[in-house]
Design a protein that fits this description.
The chain is α+β, with helices and mostly antiparallel strands. The protein contains 13 helices and 43 strands. The radius of gyration is 29 Å and the shape is globular.
Length: 749
Amino acid sequence: MKSLFSYFFFFLIFVSSVPAQSTDSLYQLADRYHERFTSKFYYNGTNIRAVNDSHSFVYTTQTPRGKEFYMIDPEQKTQKNVFDQERLATSLSKILDKKMDAYNLPFQQFRFSNQQDSIFFRVDTTDYYAALSDYKVAMAKEQSWRRDIYWSTIFKEDSKERVLSPDGKKEAYISEGNLWIKDRESGKSQKLSDDGSPYEYYSSNIYWSPDSRKIVSCKYRPGADRQLTLISSSPQDQLQPKIETLDYLKPGDALPVRRPVAFLLDEDKIISFDVPEVESQYELNNIKWDKSSDFFTFDFNKRGHQQFIIYAGDVHSGTLRPVVNEESPTFIYYNNLYQYWCKESDELLWISERDGWRHIYLYDVPSGKVKKQLTKGEWVVKTVVNVDEKRKQVLFKACGMDKDEDPYLEKYYTLDMNNGKIMALTPENAQHNVGFTKDYRYMFDVYSRVDLVPTMVIRSVVDGGKVVYKPEIQPDASKVVGAGWRMPEVFSAKGRDGETDIWGMIIRPSNFDPTKKYPVIEYIYAGPHDSHVPKSFAVEYRPSALAELGFITVMIDGMGTANRSKAFHDVCWKNLKDAGFPDRIAWMKAAAEKYPEMDIDRVGIYGGSAGGQNAMAALLFHPDFYKVGVASCGCHDNRMDKIWWNEQWMGYPIGKHYEECSNVVNAHLLKGNLMLILGELDNNVDPSSTLQVVNELIKHDKEFEFVMLPGVRHTSGEKYGERKRRDFFMKHLWGMDAPEWNVVKSKDF
């Protein structure tokens, strides 16, 4: 009897928490989210850009009429439309031969001519300009658009281009693997090297010294030629399938080897520099000559990303010396490094995490020693924006300096390099999205939080961030709130160690009823290259529309992601399956304790790319908490994915830890309900990564759903995949069937 009573008690609780609305009406709420809410958020500043050398800014905004372009002049204290959009739309309609809506022009930003009497903009892949005197539109003579270079293209440094010397008298080039120079006046050519070949040749990346008397080029040995083969099953221009191949190096593949060689033209001398562990390089690049022409520098990124050295090569002694030697027992996030070579002194600004936090150091270049650490504390320097050598001032963006605030909020500061004094330019407790004038005198600051509507101000950088102009027309969310929108909540709780604050956000449906229970769905992206929970105000975030189906949706930054301490970040090292899950689970349990409407016995999760890997990993490694997962285009085995992203976090050489983190190897652990979504032509993550998961699940007789999208590349699912994802969550978290899509008219949704 007791068990029967428990069953009925659970049944009553479940029934009382089922959404009162029909499934059809809930889908309509989700599908119309943008129309109901997002479209009513007016006058927010986006695409902020300074106008040439002036102190004015232009930006794009949404108004009740549609998309408009505004200009702000902080000195004249004016805010106005940049140009007559109706006249431009009329002219543009003629040249494009189709009707243009004046308040939905087909571009998001533009630039002024030097005289500010014309504007240049791009429609699709074509550049146009319009004279503001008569609004005549014409195609720009010089097209700035170029075909996008595929992100994994292998540059074999064997181009035939000629590189002009600074004095304009000579040009250098590569022929049959060797370096040549040609005197432009006499036309005479001279061969400088003899040891090049088609298999190990001199690089066409040629660097002249400032005095035009010396050259550096690397002896280049090509690496692997792995390619990704994709099959387009349903091409639009023919019946039969098509095949395409793309460069695609994977972890463990052989990489090119570069050896720097200096050619002293006046002395007819060649110096080959002996770089320690040269065969172990990930990259040897960023070659720069000193203004004296006595030495050059280059970056040496050792494979495995645990050592990064800046070397200086002395062309008189033929020796190398390290200027910076950065080492880590885990990883150095090389894409986040920063170096600034001072023009007025023999000094170098460098960013390092060597004390456990990301900070700025000042190096003495001749000695290769740190002169001083310029910033210090349990906060991070995110970006150096500008260095003013004359004023000895550094303008930078940082996170976490104000201890009682969300540590991810980005704020701006100036640093006096002489006395170490730091001045806050943006003191408000908010995320500051900023644009600067070319001379860094003024900054356009749009500051907000997830739970704070934006404010736009113009500040004086030279006066310590003083507000010099607050535009009269400010962002306005009143119509959004009036339509019934619920503002998301910022929430923090302790992580796995019981000490570290974990930050995230909670999104509730617009018809939220605190007396009911709601399943929880986490949108996850735990890529270690950044933190991912939004900090700026928006009406619509990734899982906002999904919440309208009767879910509470959350986003969380767990350990293993960036922009906190080095120790926080290091959790990901050789351990991508962790994905901060212990922190995420602790966070959701704390949230549910405070908000009992969050039913953490029914938790779903979804994500794409690295988030797809995370979503499936949740069901494999934490099945007692996560019950339903949808993984889109996941990099399910880090050995199958692109080299640069995966070796950064998983290390080199390839070891057992790659298998331990693999969703393919661990597919037999699957519990709960899994949907896999894949773009057939994914050129970011090898589609075989998902297909190998499918194969392994079938081997173990596991139940799952698989959605393949023909002709689609790297994707979270597009419209069809989003619908399938919603159906899947509704079925497995609410026990509700989806609408009968094969009989429903599309206009109904």
